[in-house]
Structures are given as structure tokens and as C-alpha cells.
Amino acid sequence: MTTTATGNETLTRDALAVLQPGFAGTAAPDWVRRRVGEGLASVALFGRNVVSQEQVAALTGQLRAERDDLLVAIDEESGDVTRLDVHTGSAFPGNHALGTVDDTDLTRRVARELGRRLADCGVNLNWAPSADVNANPDNPVIGVRAFGADTDLVARHTAAYVQGMQSSGVAACTKHFPGHGDTNVDSHHAVPRIDVDEDTLRGRELVPFRAAIDAGTQAVMSAHILVPALDPERPGTLSRRILTDLLRGELGYDGLIVTDGMEMRAIAGVYGLEHGVVMAIAAGADAICVGGGLCDEDTVLKLRDALVAAVHRGELPEERLADAAARVRRLARWTATTRRTAREQAAPDEEIGLVAARRALRVRRGAQASPVDAPVYVATFNPVPNIAVGDVTPWGVAGELERLLPGTTSGSFSGAGAGADALAAAGDRRIVAVVRDEHRHPWMRSGLDVLLAARPDTVVVEMGIPQSPPRGAVHIATHGAARVCGLAAAESIVAI
Question: N or C: which end of the chain has fewer CB within 10 A?
């Protein structure tokens, strides 16, 4: 049972203001609208809240009837991590594809058009871009979400993305500070640890965040990672050394600091959700992301009351909570002011996503290359997705090839027998094998070995990071699994 917070009304409103909760349903629940009236200044949208762009606009309209300057946040990276296009796949390629093209004007245009779409839906805070340098190719959670492994490339595209997004009136939230690229653990499941020296961190991980700050990013998201060179005891989200001393003090950042999802096991599983939230605000975070899993009113009230109680116990300075709430409200005012100007200036650039996806393709034709002019069999080697990507959003090339080559059929395969199973299902049809991060999955590599030994004319489409050597009669690297990446690959296959 939730205990009602005691104390003055201002303290309770400040505790509500620092929360960015999610909720269930595709319309605004009564409890959310009621809490907005009591001081809740932000809400977060997830894939479960999205049916269509028109429906999201209606939902945010209901919420803004309670508070015009409400912050409505979403995790819309495009590419593999999409919420707005959760049921179809993204209309924009992700960061790795943009980094592969390495045209900062293109990145800026993609981010601007994405921001325009979000603004049309009533969303004004986007938890993107990822500024992580993908220094570890085996990283299970970042991968194609990063612009690349080169620090300077990541920095210039992070800045371009921030500029493009914010020109649409939508605040960018650069993540995952101080850098999640050199990890081999997913913080959804445990606490990742980055064991590099401080000079490496400053010369690699921090550089893109400096670029984002210089570009005017309105928000930065913390990472639930342990970086002993910066703080040997607490992960970034709970570390005063990292959030206050480094980000605020040394880097001079004065915008909103948002936590990554607090239900993630790296926090909730180690510190407990309520205690972790108090620790995060005390460390210097301003807004608490919660609701990816726990999306009920009781969670919001428990977290509100935990913050109020921590102030009464002297565990959390009242001034720190008030400062955090003030920063949330300041960003809300910025978005309310900026979106009016941006709407007047925004012009649609609706094909830019497909243009970018086409430019990101890298095609290698081998000795066995030959035209694909008849229906094919698409064998998708499907790895277990990480939580950030989810298992709802479709990916691959099957749908587009079925449209371009009527009669095409497809199947999904995984595990030790994937190659043999795909061969049996394909019959005598030519095979298009679709993989995702072949280098991280031995079963996937073995499956391709089986296919290519039996059918050397197989076309291979890699929709993750093309770390493995290219092989197949034709090898197409899309650098991401967005819907437009699949479309660009399918177009390329029928043009062989």
C-alpha cells in the first residue's frame, strides 16, 4: 500500500516533476491526467502506446489539455530502435548507416525530418542520439545504434543530429553518458563495467558528449555502467563524481540530466528501484525515466513518496530536488516556445530516410554473382533481440522482395540446425540469406557455411555490423535493420 506523502505541497509537486513515467494504453489514462494536474511535468511513450501517428497526436492532445507545456518523451532512435514505427519498422536508417555515409548534412536532414514527425505527434523530447563510440564490436546492446567506432566521426554526427532534431522544436537527449560503447554486458540485465584508463575515456568516450554540449543538446541521458577510472563504487546514473563533478563541473553542461530506465537490472536489481531513484537525484540527475516495464500509478506514487521521505530524512537535500524540478520545467518552457517557431519553418523532407538508406548500402559482387529475376527464398537467421530493440518490430528483406518478386517465400531460422533447415525449406529456389551481426553468433556463421557450401549463388544480406568478411555470390551490408534499409537492400537485389 502506498503511503501519501506528507510535507508541503511544493515538495510533493517537485517530487512528481522529476518523474518521467510511462503508462499502458493508447489513450491518456485518467490517473496520468490527474497527476499532471498535481505537478507531473513529463510522461514517456513506448511502443505499447503507439498505433498510428494520428492516434499519438490525439493522445498527446489529451495530455496537453491538462498542461500545455508537458514534456512528452519517446525513445525514437530510428533504425533498429523505433517506437513511432514499432509495428512497421523505421522510415529512417539508424546511426550506423548514417555514420557509414559520413555526410553530416544528411544526418542533420534525417534528424530534422524525424523531429518534424515527432513534433506533429506532440512529442517534444527524444531520448536520442546515442553518442557511444562502438569500441567493442561484440557489444550486445549498442552495435548499430552507434554512428561508428571512430571517435571523431561519432562526435561530428552526434552534433549534427542534435542540431537537426532541435531545429524541429524537439529536444535531443544525448546518451549514454559517460559512454556505453566499450561494454560486453547489457545494462538491462546487469551492471556493465568499463575497465579503461581515464586518458582513454577522455580521448574517446567523452569527445562526442563534448560535441553534443557544444551543439546545444537540451538533455543528456546517464548510463548504468561502472567506470572505475571515474568512480570505482557507483554506476554513472548514481555517481555524483560522474554527473555533478564531471558532466556539470568539468564539461560545463547546464541542461537536463535524464536517467536511463530505472527498472533495468543494473539499478533496480542491485539498489532497489525506490532507493536507486533517490540516489540518482542526489547524484545530480534531474529526471527519472521509468515505465518501460512498470507503468502503473502505484509506481509513480511510490517513487514520489520515496523522494519526499528522503528529503524529510535528510538523505536528499530539498534544494537538490527543487533544482532538478526547476530544470525539468525549464526544458518544458523551451519546448513550448521553440515548437511554435519550428512549425512555421519546418518543410517536409519525406524521402530523406530512404535516400539515406540507399546511400548506406555497400554491395560486393563475387564470382558467382548473377541476376535475380525470379522468385527467391528468403532465409532470415534471427538472433534473440536485445531489450532496447524488442521483438515486436519487423525487420529483414522478405516483405519487400515478396512485393518486388511476386511468388517469393520466406522463413525464419535460428540455432545449430539453421543452415540445414533453410536449405530444406528453400527447395530449388535461389536463396537470399539475411543475417544480423554474424560475427557475434557462431550458429549464424555455421548456418551460412552450410548454405554457401551447397548453394554458392546465395545472396547474403548483413543487417547488423558487417564485422565478418563479406561472402556469398553477392554481399550487401545495410548497416542497420530499419524498414528503409530492407527496402534499399531489396531494390539492390533485383538490380543485380
Answer: N
